[in-house]
Amino acid sequence: MNYQNSYHLAWQYLIFLPIILSGLWSCDGGSHEVDLGYTAQRTAVFDSAAIVSAHPLASEAGLQIMRQGGNAVDAAIAVQFALAVVYPRAGNIGGGGFMVIRTAEGQTAALDYRERAPAAAHKDMYLDSLGNVIEGLSTRGHLAVGVPGTVAGMWEAFTKFGQLESWEMLLEPAISLAQNGFRISATEAARLNRYHDDFVELNTQPNVFTRKKTWKEGDLLVQPQLAATLRAIQQQGPKGFYQGKVAELIVAEMKRGGGLITLEDLRNYTASWRTPIEGRYKNYRIISMPPPSSGGIVLLQMLQMVAPYPIKEWGFHALPTVHLMVEVERRAYADRAAYLGDPDYYPVPIAQLLDPDYLKAKMSDFDPQRATPSTALQALSTQPLPEHFETTHTSVVDPQGNAASVTTTLNSNYGCKIVVGGAGFFLNNEMDDFSAKPGVPNQFGLVGAEANAIAPGKRMLSSMTPTIVEHDNSLRYVLGAPGGSTIITAVFQVLLNQMEFGMSLDSAVQAPRFHHQFLPDVIMYERNAWDSTFIAQLHAMGHQTKEVDRMAVIKAIARLPNGKLVAAGDHRNPDDDVAGW
Ligand code: GLY
Q1: Cβ proximity of 40 and 358 under 8 Å
Q2: Is 332 exposed, middle or buried (0-12, 13-18, 19+ CB in 10 A)?
Q3: Each residue of 413-435: pLDDT tens digit?
Q4: Does the annotation count 150 as an active-site position?
Q5: What is the reported pTM?
Q6: Which of 138, 391, 412 to mutate to test the pocket of ligand 1 (most atoms within 8 A of CB)?
Q7: In this predicted model, what pLDDT tens digit does every residue of 259-313 receive, in sequence order?
Q8: Ligand 1: which residues within 6 Å by Cβ?
């Protein structure tokens, strides 16, 4: 028996031992007492290595890879593939994402495996004959799909930064989970039930996700078609996805529903290495994702605009602190709408946007007593913000001190809701992240302009903000989040909670958050963040407010000065899990 096979068996044993022991082999789990074979741990301190991901089985996949000698990048790849199985709402092979890396020696890198518009896509593809945006066309069904980037991205990351010799090992945990099944959590059951009707309407049958009308915690989800797809990727690398049978199944799925992706689109997809966005906040060095993500630029703009003010003295969520941070967020998101897009297609003025004089000038009309109306910054249309935040993030630090910060997405929950017939994985609806028409909001209420207009092969603008922070030249934080447009303000606030307000990592992550994104001109705040007196004070300053259930879901690791690693998931996702040793 070769090593790979014994590894495979070890994995099956590891995953299924708890289930075997608990004697829970029936397909129907049931109550809260159900033993899933795993439990989520929200926070812990580790000596050497740490992972935070959206699901315990995915964290375990990464941990096993590190135990086998893999580094943080190897572990992040194993987590990404495992999430495609156990966290199908956002973990994916049919979507895309970004990875920011910092090696133990301090080398940094940013990998872009964002989806691309198909060659047949065009600027007005979501407009009717009167030039109005056709609702739902960019979010639901076959036309919403961008050419997936995840598999190419994982291969690129492995080729350049992986430490293991075997790519095959990285897929083994995911294949095992797909082939043999895993018991779904209560949150996954509730989500699958919520989208059941969409899955039935949009998909060919049989489909594992519609096998049951009502899923329950503990039900066994087995995905044999996905296992076969992952096996093709395991054996052939990116060719197993972008060419051959899987590619043909994707194109057949596109043809079935009027989608645009062709075999040529798939064959032409490449991931890109970008220069990370890097800048300072006091003694900290921030390393984050450049365009086509807006994350790094907007994050650094906000940090640099807030830096001259004594927010530590003012205090966490004190009125002047919140007012200042809202005004900073408003101004940075105004630039996002106007200037940010795919740098391969549009000359994003990165240096100007981060120029200290420019940022100082942006704050010259800041009034400490009054809100600046967004219309005074730029006139674009507005619409209330919906509350759906679907993406996922993984943070990893390995025993050598290498770090990987990975955010990946299908965009909405389960992407466009289409499972590729015969191949078993969800496709993204990332085309909605383009600006379908200047000034018309997308599903996150974000507006855009020419910089983010649709063009063949172009990558849509993202808010994903995988970030790594150094302090005194040493690794300090690894963090990121799902949460659409609220990702960047969440990373901003969690960093300030630690760097300025001295909170522990766990408190910094769990603390209530707020968000302003220029348009609509309203502060979103999480339920119970503020009392009515505080909200009245904000209104008196000219702010509008809107309460929401929750915002972005941070997953973070902090490296303490003594070298220990604190890992924290977020109470906003009950399945968030930390693992390490
Ligand atoms: N799909 C959400 C984002 O990339 O910002």
Answers
A1: no
A2: buried
A3: 999 999 999 999 999 999 999 99
A4: no
A5: 0.93
A6: 391
A7: 999 999 999 999 999 999 999 999 999 999 999 999 999 999 999 999 999 999 9
A8: 391, 409, 411, 430, 433, 462-464, 484
